[in-house]
Amino acid sequence: MMKLNGLASSEEEQLLAERVELLHEHLGTSLPIAFLCASIIFYGLSGVINSTLLFTWYISFFFVFLVRFYLYKLYTLHPHHAQRNLNIFIIGCTLSALMWGIAGTLLIPQGHILSQAIVIIIIAGVSSGSVQTLQASPLASTIYILLSVLPLDIWLLLQRTENYFLLSMSLFLYIIFMLITCKRGHNLIMSALMLRHENMNINLQLEDINKLLKTEIVKVKKNEKSLAQLAEIVRYSKDAIIGLDTNGVIQSWNKGAEMLYGFSEREMIGKSITLLTPTSQKDLLESMLEKVTNNLSFQNVELERQHKLNHLIPVSVTLSPIKNSDGTIIGISSMDRDVSERKEIDKVKNEFISVVSHELRTPLTSIKGSIGLLIHQIDTMPALKMSQLLEIAYNNCDRLIRLINDILDIEKIESGKLEFKTEIINLNALIFDSLEENQSFAAKFQVKLCFKSEDEVFISGDKDRLMQVMTNLISNAVKFSPPHSNVDILLSLHNNYVRVSVTDHGMGIPREFQPKIFGKFTQADASSTRNIGGTGLGLSICKAILEKHHSHIDFITEEGKGSCFYFDLLRS
Ligand code: ADP
Questions:
Q1: Helix, strand, coil in percent for the chain, rounding step 5
Q2: What percent of the chain has pLDDT over 70?
Q3: pTM check: above 0.85
């Protein structure tokens, strides 16, 4: 018997089912052949032996043939009951073998050599023919061979003649040979079936591995995709994202870092991050890096870094440890955000607060001083002095109102609520009005306002707002003019538009301040202009008003020689 150790019971059942299938495989043809052989014996022995005996055997054989055929049909209808089908098969083949055994003893005629030969040959042939089918079951094959051939062998032995004895011995050897063949055949079948099973199991395992591999590949591909996306985000981030090893040596350098610090990836990989750090902050950075390697993080620490062109850039730095899957720290990430713009805005805000507080404090101090004097000396003060003090208080109130109006205008511009009433305006008349309005202011600075126009010009616009522009330009020109100089206001005609220019012969505008001049709360020099007064809002308001008139304000200036502010308007 083949060893079935190590097989699961389901596998043993499967093997049994396959053996039963092999047993039944050729039964559909071998049964009719067996019946044919029985018919040859019946025919060959007719008239030679007792006809009743022969007929009874033949009918019995036919009955066994029907029973076996019926059992075969049962098997084909219920092939899954392997053990039951095997038992039934063994019963069926025992019955057949019995029939051959009977034929080999009771049907052999004495002294009729030819008939004896027919029976012997057929029994030997039938038993050898069945070996191929029966070797799937050692029990079935043993029963079949012994029951069908052994009675004949014994009969031959009992004849007690030398020839029959030799024949009997040969048949005996034949039986032994058949049994050994069946045994070997059975072992071979079992090996083949078990190999087939192992093969099937391996195939199943391979299929499982294949499925697993497929899902793993999908996962890896997904991970690869999200990693690639992440890498692209990091690569093209506006912030500088720098990967460092635990010693602060740069391992990766994104586009943001390139833009912010001016160094290319090739220039920085392998260099220490301290190269970007100004000397004053090197110790601080080194101690921060050491702490990060001990699993600390730093969020938005404001540091300075050195650009390739040597200037310093204020940055907000976030330093965090990079860990591998076991949690071991393998590097440091440095995310640097440029905060120069925010710093600039902070500076402008601080300047604004200082300007506004100065602008508020100066007139308020004057108002308070004038009123204080009036209160304390009201009984003794001459009327002229009183009116001078009241005028000072009045003028300073005016200055306060202007400041507040400017701040309100800026707020309206920023929220898009600055309203315009458009009408056709005589520009010459408007400029005359603005001259008149600023005359006393100019007189204070001993500056003369001069107006020249080529012709009378009409435009479409908001009268009050354009007055506001003119007043601001004239008052600026006056403020920055030396005493006894002129401020020239000119209307010049060009095709379908008119250019308004206000020219002074004052200090001019410093080169470094020129790009910022139309910004909010900007003044060339907050300390020097403080003597002159102003909020740094006027030009920003002018620009916004003129933009609403589809116009654009600009200037020409020369330091120490003066400035000319101009804008163009479409003629109506
Ligand atoms: P302010 O109320 O301070 O005058 P502006 O926006 O009108 O505000 O002007 C901003 C700054 O531009 C001024 O403080 C001054 O430094 C500069 N500026 C404007 N006009 C002139 C000018 N005609 N000559 C020299 N500097 C000028």
A1: 65, 15, 20
A2: 97
A3: no
